[in-house]
Structures are given as C-alpha cells and as structure tokens.
Amino acid sequence: xxxxxxxxxxxxxETSVDALEIKPGGIYVDATFGGGGHTREILKRMKGGRLMAxxxxxxxxxxxxxxxxxxxxxxxxxxxxxFLRYYGINKVDGILADLGVSSHHFDTAExxxxxxxxxxxxxxxxxxxxxxxxxxxxxxxxxxxxxxxFKEYGEIENAGKLASCIDNIRKHSRIATMSDLIxxxxxxxxxxxxxxxxxxxCQALRxxxxxxxxxxxxxxxxxxNLLNSGGRLVVISYHSLEDRPVKNFMRTGNVAGLRNxxxxxxxxxxxxxxxxxxxxxxxxxxxxxxxRSAKLRVAEKI
Length: 302
Description:
With 302 residues, the chain is α/β, with parallel strands linked by helices.
C-alpha cells in the first residue's frame, strides 16, 4: 500500500509544544504520535532527556525520526503507565495528546473511516490487529446497543430509528461496505443534512470500534501519578465528548467533574488548570480546515 505523503498536518503545533514548557533534559510523552509532527517539535527543543511516543497504528512507524532519545511504543496510550514503568521511567515532566484522527485515516479508502469512499469495507480500526471492526458492530450488536452507541457517541436524535433501519437490512444481507451502510440508513437521514448526519454516524462507529472514550479516561487518570510537580498536561480535543472529560479532569482530578473538598471545605484538585481554552487562528483553519473544531487545554500538576 502506498501511504499518503501528507500523512497528517499537526494542529496547534507551536502552541501545544510551547504549553509543555520543555526543560532541555526533561522526560516527556507524546501520547498520540500520528504523523510525528508534535514529536519532532518536542525533540527539537530538548537537549538530552527522553521522549516516549505512542501510536497503535503500525503504519505510523514509517514516520519515526531517527533519534536515540525517542522511545516508540506501538500500543494504545491507555497503557502509558505500564510502558513507562517497563522502561524504568516513574515520573515525566510533560504529557501531550492530540486526540484528532489522523488525516491519513480519513483519506485512505481501505481504512474505512470516511463516507467519502462508499465502496470501502467498514473497518475503522486504528490498530488493524484488533478484532472489532465497524462492520462487526453494525451486523452483530443488538438494536439497543446500537441505539446507545449512536445516541452517546454520535449524539444522533433519531438513534432508535437508525438502529431499526440497520436491523431491517442486516436480517436479509450483511452490511459490508460504506455504501451498504449509507443505503441502510437512507430513510433516517434528514433532508439537506446528509453529510452532517453521516459524519455523526461514522464518528459513533469509529469511537466504539476503538473504545476511544474509555481509553481517554484511562489515559487522563494515569497522568496524575506520572507527572512531576510542575509538569504539564496538554490535550487537544475535537468534540464535546472528548473535551468535557478533559476539562473536568483538569479542574477536579476526575472525568466526572466531581469536586473533592478537604476538612475545611476547600476544593482539592491535583492540577492548576488554565481557564482559557486555546483555539486555532483563522489562518491555521484556512490552511488546515480539519483544525476548525480543535480546543487546546493545559493544566499544571501541583
């Protein structure tokens, strides 16, 4: 397979790496390597130190820079603490995560992420060695499970009707391609909103296929014990399902946003969280339209 040479354009590159406040000899984590843009920028600012980068897609390894300071782990960032411990690292000075899906995944038909490629197999796996695919979900999950996924991860209003439409079709033939899926859900799509509706549907299936929200929660929860005092947690999110737990965690230390208090009623939280949300400039959005929904949040470990 020939890889897209424009694998991924990193969003808020300078701003996010600035937020790490890199110490020349520090230890850092790029939790979402992707095309390697953030990793290269972090390495450029370091003198010595170590950087561990995670990505579960084996196709990203062709983008690895040759640098003895870099440790690459082809696995989910939800296992961050396990791998850091394996490499003898107990604490780090900064963790960065760009939660966006790589442009490569959207633009490569055979990965099955986008409705722009109707004849593509329904796949959507970040890690092609995983068993669960979007095709398996639409054909084998019961209608209540499908409804829950579409409502929670896609925020689709007619999630029940959508699940029923899929169920009616799969009783007679397997839904194997994106085209099959689009035909199955056609009666559910509101007029003049096909692209928006299909985008929500694909988002829901992708998030379930890759267990994205559970992985994000595990990743955030681990960061508390891994960061040194004064260490930075920097996260770029792209929709409310990601941004909400990130914001809650940075403010309260838990993804639910529950405020813990001490004996005197003072709020106890492990981070100093910046209340300012950073978004891309108009110029960046023009040059990289996929950046338009990005939100950058920063917190410092107390």
